[in-house]
Amino acid sequence: MILKIAFKNVWRNKARSLIVITAITLGLVGGIFTVSIFTGMVEQKVRNGINNEVSHLQIHDPRFFKNYESIYAIPHADSLAGIIASEPGVKAVCVRTRMNGMAASPNSAAGIQIVGVDAAKEKLVSSLYTSIPDSNGGFFTGTKKNQVVIGLKLAQKLKVRYRSKIVIRFQDPDGNLTEGAFSVIGIYQTSNTGFDETTVFVKKTDLDIIAGRDNGIQEIAVMLSDNDLIPATQMAIKSKLKGLDVQNWMEIRPDMSIMTSAIAIEIYVILGIILFALAFGIVNTMLMIVFERTHELGMLMAVGMSKSRVFRMIMMETIFLTAIGGVIGIVISMGLIAFFQKHGIDLSAMSKGLKAFGIDPKIYPFIKTQFYINLCVMILCTGILAAIMPARKALRLNPVEAIRVE
């Protein structure tokens, strides 16, 4: 009975109730959509980072990251790759030669990281080859020797184009300075300009021929079928590869890990501030309602309605008001997010700034289901907290004095 009365009371003054519901709806739509943009940006950055740069897991000699020296190679890397590939959930494995070097053209020079790969296996763990436009070549096409794939930012720095020649210098495991002329066979462009400017890909066999010896394998990259398998798979590989450093993408790229953790907190801070502000409006509205219905509430208590029922009635009216606005706000937000998930939000005007942080200029908003569950709890708590003051105000009414109020 109290629930039915409370719900009807919400609509006694439709204009006022609709204004409050509209305020809650708009506040939530703005907050949820803003959160979805931030979440989508971070999800895209992480996904691009995993697919193009680091993969889910990487294995190195523990000393390798000090100076990226090729002498710190992984012994029996090919056989270890086979062991890793047999682990449940492992989608693909590839081995890489990785070292520091220098790229030079007739116009300029730049420090780089050289990644020596097997082209066919590299495509299984990295989607970088999809970042090469048709007009800028491909990912190691044909059988021609000394091919190199570079980033667009590096190509601009060296002032070279597709099919241009560059010289790559590096130090082999014996400490000898070696160099070779390479033909730019592909120019890729990712959302991370820092990666594009510093990383070049060559065939491992070409590096070995130039050095006159095997440069070794400094890195084993592992892609999994699901992100949720990372902790278990990492532990399983660590137990089998004693003496080697097995790292996940969060350890390799702590900047992406920090951003992911920070956004998880920030989204609730943003919505908490919005709901906190809306709570003041709800409290103000309900206090006005209690003041206007002082005579009515006094009559109800005079004819036998207990103060606890009056308290519950005011509480339920406030919760209904908040919940209606919350549900409408969530439904509209879900529709907006679904639309922009399909079509994206084009921020090409800010592409240079976004790419400096490794973010695509076209953003696809994203929200996890768990977020909506947590949001519903937050909205319910807001309604309850906003109802306490008006309900206590109603409790303090003296029935005799309240009846006299016109």
Describe the 3D structure:
- The protein has helices at 2-10, 14-54, 64-67, 77-85, 119-125, 152-158, 193-198, 204-211, 230-240, 249-252, 254-292, 294-302, 307-343, 351-356, 369-395, 399-404; strands at 57-60, 90-104, 109-117, 147-151, 165-171, 177-188, 199-203, 219-224, 245-248, 345-346, 362-363.
- It has 406 residues and is of the alpha+beta class.
- Helix 2 packs antiparallel against helix 11 (254-292) and helix 11 packs across helix 13 (307-343).
- The longest helix has 41 residues, at 14-54.
How much helical structure, as a percent, in the residues? 55-70%
Strand content: 15-25%
Radius of gyration: 31 Å
Number of domains: 2
* N→C terminal distance: 27 Å
Which ranges are low-confidence, i.e. pLDDT below 50, for 5 or more consecutive residues? none
Count, helices: 16
Principal-axis shape equals elongated
Largest sheet: 6 strands, mixed, barrel
Mean pLDDT: 86
Q: Topology as H/E string?
A: HHEHHEEHEHEEHEHEHEHHHHEHEHH
Give, in spatial order, the strands making up the sheet with the most strands. 2-3-7-4-6-5
Please provide the count of β strands. 11
Q: Which structural class fits the helix and strand makeup?
A: alpha+beta
